[in-house]
Structures are given as C-alpha cells and as structure tokens.
Write a structure and sequence with these properties.
Length: 386
Amino acid sequence: MTEDVSGVLMEHQIIRDAVRRFAEQEVAPVSERLWEEQGFPYEIWKKAGELGFSGLPYDEQWGGGGGDWVAYSIVLEELARVDCAIANSLMANSTVASLLANFGTDEQKQRYLTPILNGSQIGAIGLSEPNAGSDAANIQTVAKRQGDSWVINGAKTFISNSGTDVTGPVVIAAVTGTRPDGRKQISNFIVPNGTPGFEYGRKLRKIGWRASSTYELSFQDCILPMDHLLGEQGGGLRQTLAQISTGRILIGSLALGILQGSLDRSVEYMKARQAFGRPISEFQALQFKVADMAVHTHAARLMLHDAAQKKDAGRPFANEASMAKLFATERAMEAAHQAVQIHGGYGIISEYPVARAFGDAKVLEIVEGTSEIQRMIIARELLLKD
Ligand SMILES: Cc1cc2nc3c(=O)[nH]c(=O)nc-3n(C[C@H](O)[C@H](O)[C@H](O)COP(=O)(O)OP(=O)(O)OC[C@H]3O[C@@H](n4cnc5c(N)ncnc54)[C@H](O)[C@@H]3O)c2cc1C
C-alpha cells in the first residue's frame, strides 16, 4: 500500500473522499427531513450497500469488501460527520455481521450475512432488555429446548435497525440454562424477521439517532429450528465480548464524525456571522472553543486508528478501544455543545446540523458500554491485572 508524505494511506484517502462525496451529495439533502420524520433512510441504506460501504471490512467470500478496520472507521466518521443516525445503521449492522462472520456456519453466513453486507437487508442485535443493559449477564429472555426446536420467551428494548421493511436477521441473546458456577448460561440465536411469536412493540421516539429505527421486541413461544443457534450453546457472552471492542472503535468513529462536523460547521459559521460590526471569528472566547475541538478531533482520530490498526494486525486492542471510545464520545458531546453555543439561537433550530448532532452525541456516551463502564474496564486493567 502507498503512503503519502503525511503517512496517510492513499487507499484510505480514496475511501474518505468517496464517502464524503456520498454523504454531502446524497445524505445531507435529506438529513433534516429524516430527523423530523424519524424515518429510516431506505434509499441511502441501499446505495451504501451497492457502493460497498456497509460490508467493507468483511470477507469477499460472503459479499464483503475485504477492507481493513481503519478504512471502516473512516467510512463511519465521514457518514457521522453529516448524519450520525445513518452512520449508526451501518454500525449496528456491523455488530451483527461480526457475530455471523466469526461464529456462524457457512450456511448461516450464506443465508444471513451476505444480504446484510450487500444492503438488501439490515441486521439487528438484541442484547439489551428492560431490566438489563450494562449488566448484560442478567438478561431474562429464555430459550428452552423442545424436541428439535428452541422456544424463546422474553422481551428486548432499544434495538437499532429493528422494525424496518428491510430488517433481516435479529441476533438475540437468551438464557439457555445455568452454568456450573450458578450463573446464567447465555446463548445467541438468529431470529429471522417475521418468525411467528416474534413481534415488535413500541417504536421508540428519541432525542438522538432519530433516523435510526429503534423498537422494543417481544418473544412469545417463538419457535426456532435448532440451526438458528449461533455457535455453541452457552457461547453467547463470549461471542458478544469478542465483538464488543470492535463495536467500541465503531461508536468512537461516529463520535469522531461529530467532532469533525462540529468543528467544520463552527469555523464556517464564525467566519460568516457578524456581531458588534465584526465577524464573530475575531472573538477570542470563540476561537478557543474551535481550537479545543481541533485538538480533540486530532487526538480522537489517532486513538481510534491506533486501536483499529492493532485489530487489523491481530494484536490485542480491547483496552485501546475502550479508551478511544470514552475519549471520543465525551469530547464529541463537548464539541456538539460548544458548536450549538457558537451558533447562538440558530444552534437550537433543527434545520441546523449542529442542533441535530447535539442529541446524537449524547447517545454515544451510553451505547456499547456507557462512559462509567469504560472507566471500570480501563481501571480494572490498571489495578486488578496481575
Ligand atoms: C438509541 C439507542 C440504541 C441502542 N441500540 C441497541 C441495540 O441495537 N442493541 C442492544 O442490545 N442495545 C441497544 N441499546 C441499549 C444500550 O446498549 C444500553 O442503553 C446501554 O448498554 C446502557 O444500559 P441501560 O440503558 O440499561 O442503562 P443501565 O445499565 O441501567 O445504567 C444506568 C446508569 O447506571 C450506570 N451504571 C450501571 N452499572 C454501573 C456500575 N457497575 N458502576 C457505575 N455505574 C453503573 C450507567 O453507566 C448509567 O449511567 C441502545 C440504546 C439506545 C439509547
């Protein structure tokens, strides 16, 4: 691969340029309407699949692009710079793709992975429940063996990418027994959309990620054939843990998009807006805000690409991913807040992208492990490791 003088891979720059063009030309014009209507972007999802963005880091054998995770981080950053909800649809789809790619049989990959990589369907992951989010090992949905089937009963909530016309596989976690240490044994199951006994509850109305479809799910005597178990029985938490650090790089990349977007829009607005007979860019109080945003954007990108490069190289990256996720999401919230401040009253009006990004930034501090959970992980690494 070729590097330019600044060490940026030319391949990565080409991808960045392509996604930026797509985001500016296809996403930006419809972003406000999707935010208002809280509608899923069907056309954009289809095109992102056709252009190879959705499946970029996955194996070509299953319809992926065979790219690396730094490149995928760039895809998500560039989309989130314009619309974080749309970037999340790719991100949540990717968590399902990782589970299927790493633990599915060839038949499961053919049937469920390929359609969610090429954009003809979208995948959803159902771990969280009304009474179990951070404490994922405490889920209550159960799966019981009955002859040659599994019977699922329970409820899930906050599930991204569920309830759309293109939702395909929903991978859910359920309790399948008790482990020798007395804790719950958890397994993952592929539930195809439309399976009898699997119903959608409320569509959740949100302050962020509004164009990302989020529903409650319920399972009542939902019968699944045996081959819908993903990987081994009891492997559910291990499988989730194996992909969650990757998910943290991806959520951090969404935060990076918000950082860059807040910075770009603030600089542009400061040059154009006048107050007291001068452009507001001449006020040092505001100059310092964009200076901080630029520093945080650069630092977040370095941290995220470092974690992604380690993943690409097959080296341990979980701690780096937690640190990058924590840093990028908290700095994105701060930048989104200051971008609204710089825009004054206009920053509150939803036709301004900085207003819409404000709610999106808050979501990022909560999903894929809250900030508190990331600090627990980082502290554990510092204090409790031999
Ligand atoms: C828009 C959106 C989309 C989502 N999409 C999905 C999805 O597709 N699939 C899915 O499975 N889930 C999804 N989630 C759920 C998300 O993963 C959870 O909201 C998240 O894990 C936090 O869980 P919780 O909401 O139950 O909060 P809780 O776990 O109840 O936490 C409440 C508060 O307590 C704190 N806390 C909890 N435990 C500790 C502790 N030990 N020490 C210190 N503080 C603690 C938390 O940090 C938080 O501040 C989504 C959520 C949202 C908002």
